[in-house]
Write a structure and sequence with these properties.
With about 280 residues, the protein is α/β, with parallel strands linked by helices. About 40% of the residues lie in helices and about 20% in strands. Strands 1, 2, 3, 4, 5, 6, 7, 8, 9 and 10 form a 10-stranded mixed β-sheet that branches.
């Protein structure tokens, strides 16, 4: 049975830490390690985490960047498989056992399902794909974009460490929307992706969550970073794909993402973003 490294970036998460960690401690399979990295929280997060020092690997850094924190956590992990968990989310109790049912030496990425829950633990939205089975990464990516699915969150995947290390993957520091910035490229590089119908991840949405209700300046930065990532995707992935139908599907998906982000902007920012989309439509199609 393979050991799973669970990497949790922490910033001002005192309200969530206990529940998050308990969802790991209650796993039906205990072959895991927890890498908790506190990014210089100003609340009691580190104090609470210190109560679990005998059960977790705890680090304190001052990165001011969730991408840098994830990258740091990776350097401290030793598992054969890698999972990412956000501090206010939880795992299903059988996730690690379920992952280990599959031939972990024989895939690069394993995709499971996730659901969004609210303060009352009611399902708000699903991160569900009907595309289950075994695929090349590009096949799976094409199926997802063809259905306009949200496929990019890193916490929807279990990664084979050898695959991760062989390609020297890392989250792009200084940018938001880091999952969108990395997952497409990983799928492009993956020889084998297994997608299973099992719901393993619970994404928590709270109305008063600072991280998930950002200021307008953060909203603007996210939109600009998505534009950056989309340009990178086209250059590194789409332009190198020989199959014209797949190229068209991914291009249309990127343009749809940009249109969605445009609608989060206001006034002159929105107008400038619209101009960039028009340029991309001419360059990409």
């Amino acid at each position: 049975m393979k050991k799973v490294s669970i990497i949790i970036p922490i910033y001002n998460g005192e309200k969530y830490i206990d529940k998050c960690l308990e969802s790991i401690f209650n796993q039906s399979c205990n072959n895991y390690e927890i890498i908790a990295v506190d990014d210089n929280s100003s609340d009691n997060s580190y104090k609470i985490l210190s109560n679990y020092k005998n059960k977790i690997k705890l680090y304190k850094v001052s990165k001011h960047d969730p991408c840098a924190v994830r990258n740091y956590g990776l350097t401290k992990s030793t598992g054969d498989l890698i999972l990412f968990l956000d501090m206010d989310d939880t795992l299903d109790k059988d996730l690690i056992k379920t992952i280990n049912k599959y031939d972990t030496d024989n895939y690069d990425m394993l995709r499971f399902q996730g659901i969004m829950v609210d303060d009352d633990n009611k399902t708000v939205e699903g991160f569900i794909t009907p595309n289950t089975g075994t695929f090349t990464g590009l096949e799976f990516l094409n199926k997802c974009v063809s259905n306009n699915e949200i496929y990019s969150p890193s916490w929807l995947y279990c990664y084979n460490r050898k695959f991760w290390n062989d390609h020297n993957f890392s989250f792009l520091e200084g940018k938001t929307q880091e999952d969108f910035g990395l997952t497409s490229y990983q799928l492009y590089k993956a020889n084998k992706v297994i997608s299973i119908p099992y719901i393993g991840y619970y994404y928590y949405r709270s109305n008063d969550s600072i991280m998930r209700n950002p200021s307008y300046e953060k909203t603007k930065k996210k939109a600009l970073d998505v534009l950056y990532h989309s340009n990178s995707h086209y250059d590194k992935i789409v332009s190198k794909i020989d199959n014209l139908n797949i190229r068209k599907n991914i291009t249309n998906y990127l343009l749809n993402v940009l249109e969605h982000k445009k609608n989060s902007l206001k006034g002159e920012d929105k107008a400038k973003y619209e101009e960039q989309i028009k340029i991309k439509k001419k360059e990409w199609i």
